[in-house]
Design brief:
Layout: H1 13-28, E1 41-46, H2 52-63, E2 67-71, H3 84-94, E3 97-101, H4 105-114, E4 119-121, H5 129-143, E5 150-154, H6 159-170, E6 174-178, H7 187-197, E7 204-207, H8 210-214, E8 219-222, H9 235-242, H10 249-252, E9 260-263, H11 275-278, H12 285-304
Helix pairs in contact: 1-5, 1-12, 2-12, 3-4, 5-6, 5-12, 6-7
Amino acid sequence: MPKHLLRVSDLSAAELIALIDAADAFKAEPNRAATRLRGSSVTMYFSKPSTRTRLSFQTAVHRLGGLPIITGPNELQMGRGETIEDTARIVSRMSAAFVIRTFADADVEAFAKAASIPVINALTDGHHPCQALADLMTLRARFGKLEGLTLAYVGAGNNVAHSLLEACALAKMNVRIAAPASLPPAEDIVSKAKELAKSGGTEVVVTSDARAAVAGADCVYADTWLSMGDPPEERDERLRVLQPYQIDAALMACAKPSAVFMHCLPAHRGEEVTADVADSDRSIIFDQAENRLHTSLAVLDALVRDVAV
């Protein structure tokens, strides 16, 4: 395993599957590593509000026998000018791992570079690797496999789309991103995903045509149209541009009859998805949410296993 998990492509294909296997094992036996963090703490830093990420990691640390310490900009001197590097060195002396949810990827990278303990990206503007792990765990549980499945993400090309691009490519899945031309995924992420997909012979497609992306897909995926940190003055324009990308029953009908609907939550019914889709039998959004816990357990267990705590 890598020392840190900052983005999905930090993992090899084998490591990705190993984490999903471990998450399945934790789901079946939640206390299978109940002393992994005994006598140790895991520090968590949240610059953004959090429900699933905070609850899943806090519960995971507790189940591993550790003490979760929750902090934010108003509780550490980093919010008053202490450097990221100094903070990383101090946290490394007192905790077994550091979980960070913030805005800039550069801040997480700087923290990881200075830290001597594992650093886990719990969401940045560019990546959401822990969400993608839970998504693939959920899909494998539903379909019994990952290889050969097709996931269609519909909406703005954001952090969730980026992590899905990398995760699906590593798992030998086909991935299609339908996004407005003004809100595409980052070109370097798309290029990386295409490079990763070569070995599996799968496709990575970016299009502005939602119906084309969803056609024959096994999974149709949505995310909120307005991310934390987006300028409020851009709200109306983003909603206008993204309206054609709303996932409704007509768009779901373009997917396979067995296709599922996924959403990383929180969902805004009436915006990125209609209520009849989000609350239908095809929706597995709460399975995804639950699996955030099991993948958090797997990630923490794997990364701290070889660290002296």
